[in-house]
Amino acid sequence: MRNRKISLRTRIFFSMIVLSIFSLLLILFASYIQYKNQSEDYNLRRLIRKETQVKDHLNYLMRRDSSFHQIAARKEKSQQDFSSIATIHKVEYALYTLSGEPLFFSYVDGIEGHQLASSVLNELFEDKRQRIGKLNEAEKGKFQSSYSVLKDDQGEPYVILYFPYFEDISFSTTELNTFLTRVFQITLLMMIITFGFAFLLAGFITRPIESLRKKIDQTGLLKGNERISLNNASKEIDTLVNSYNSMLDALEMSAEKLAKSEREQAWQEMAKQVAHEIKNPLTPMRLTIQSFQQRFDPADESSLEKLNDFSKTLIEQIDTMSNVASAFSDFATLPQPKIIEEDIVEVTRLATEIFEASNIQLIAPSSPLLWPIDRTQWIRVLTNLIKNAIQAVPQGREPKIEVRLILDKHQLEIQIADNGSGISTEDIHRVFEPKFTTKTGGMGLGLAIVKNIIDSLNGTIEFNSSLKHGTTFSIKLRHPSHDV
Fold it and tell me: Which residues neighbour 238 within 8 Å (Cβ) at sequence distance 6 or greater?
């Protein structure tokens, strides 16, 4: 089974669609990542800002009360200050001693009453800034937190601040969904526009190629090929068009050479046949003359009769050569027809009267019928066809030839029917070919000349043959004044 090939236009269209979809999905993904990163950066900055506010407030309390750095000793006294910080700044935080013991904590799930892990303390004090960030898990979900060592004005550490930060997930999710919905709507609109643009662009790109394909399909060796001229074609298409036009030039040259070669070959074949046909009568003429020279006796009483026979034989052979030359001349250079209005019924009657009247029946309108023809050529057409019809009748059968003139509106049909042997199936397609004949004599140019004359009258000639029963030739002529 032959594989169906995908057209270039379809390939370009789907390639652009796939590329567009991939690009738009990439834009969506990049937008999501960008928005997520921006959201994380925003929350991180907010954490640091809130943390800084709490640190500044604690440092303010320490500067206000010189004994504040003894925070572990005055734990109970500072509880109110610590709570006020959580209330003022609307945050949750916790304070630990430098050894990790809890000093204060607002409502923080999962941290109340717990001592800091040694791993956290080690990591915190090993850090140069003495501040670390953590990602924690709780019932509220994932949240960020920080551990910082607070120092007094002399740079001495006095407490560890634990600061958790819970993002407002509902707002972020709503904002993200709104953003993605708008991006999706814009993307969908862009995809629809891209589909239409891809369809038009694929057609625009492939239109010159389609035009070139149609021209190539119409190209033939014996056709009148037209050169291609495309405006605003791309460099590749223009190169292809130039190659095609160059091919046409080469094709025309090849066609001219082929036609010239065929003409030369045809004339060579015709010359050989004419020479052969002329040589045929020369041999008996030579023998006849030699025989006459040897047998001629002026004193013989029958010499006059022999002279007449000799003259008759020479005349027959000379007529044969003359007929050969005339046939060749008629076929090679058919004279230009002299078309005038003639009574075609009368001209046809004259052509049939050349032959024996009893063998030919003319069926034609009784009134004159004027038709534009060349009188001489029309008589030649009829005599050729009638002669062939008579010769087609086998020996022992009486020839019956019918010539019919039928007028149908503005079309005239002439039929020449015989009761001969008919035309065999293998010869049907060769009847009008020059040099083709089924007779032992003649050059086979009669029907070729007939067809040339009918063509010059813009008519048609056809035949219908039944083997062993006869053949009917049909000529159809349309009046020039009623041509469409």
Answer: 230
Tokens of 403: 């010539």
Identify the helix (H) or strand (E) that includes residue 472. strand 470-478
Six token digits for residue 264:
């030369």
For helices 169-217 and 235-295, the axis angle rounded to 10 degrees is 20
Q: 70: helix, coil or strand?
A: coil
Residues 292, 388: Cα–Cα separation, whole Å? 36
Paired tokens of 109? 């799930």
- Using one digit for the tens of pLDDT, what is the confidence trace for 163-179? 887 665 555 667 767 77
The structural domains of the chain, ordered by start, are 8-173 (3.30.450.20), 235-332 (no CATH), 340-482 (3.30.565.10)
C-alpha atoms less than 13 angstroms from C-alpha of 185 in its C-beta half-sphere = 5
DSSP state of 198: H
pLDDT 10s digits, 325-384: 666 665 555 556 778 999 999 989 888 887 765 688 999 998 999 999 988 889 888 988
